[in-house]
Amino acid sequence: MRKTDYFNSKALGWIIRVGLTKRAGILCLLTLVIMNHGIAQSHDHEDTLVALPKNAFSINLLQNTGTQFKFEIVNNNLDTIEPFFVEIFAIGFNFTEECILQQSINNNNLETNLEKLWGPQFISLGVGTIPPSGHYATTLGTLSNSQGSMIKIRVFGTINGQNVIWVGYLKK
Question: Distance between CA 73 and CA 140 in Å, rounded?
Fold first, then answer.
């Protein structure tokens, strides 16, 4: 005689195999758990970082001497970036002990920063807000530079509640 794991039950006038209903119930439960887990891990636009296109900013070298250089970052976006953070990485040279000599936004000197960290080969600055077509300029002190030295500039900020990033390079 064949042994089965099923037994018959009568519900609402229908004869139902209970083993099948248990399997269907478990399958439905697992499907709901997986769907809820997938929804819980969805990402809103506020949690993501968007890379801005290459033409979002322009970098211009304004002054270049043996001990310092001055450059500006121009916001080519139509939106204000707030807060505006700049990270500068030295490639082929080192910054001086007090490397940040001067900073300005639209020719107005900055006296304070949201963030100001530096070392011999990096600078991280939080400068507040940069408006559309705004110009951020800084003068940095350098110790030495080799031929082909450059800086890598990363810009972070928020535009209309969306976190953004931009990366550019400038030859010294």
Answer: 14
Which of 168, 127, 166 has the alpha carbon at shortest distance from 49? 166
The whole-model pTM stands at 0.69
For residue 126, pLDDT beyond 60: yes
The residue type found at 162 is Q
Q: Which one, of 92, 98, 82, lies nearest residue 158 by Cα? A: 82
Strands (E) located in 13-80 = 14-17, 49-51, 57-64, 68-75
- Looking up tokens 């939106």, which residue turns up? 79
Q: Which two tokens mark 153? A: 């500039």
Cα distance from N-terminal residue to C-terminal residue, the chain: 89
What is the rounded CA–CA span in Å between residue 161 and residue 45? 9
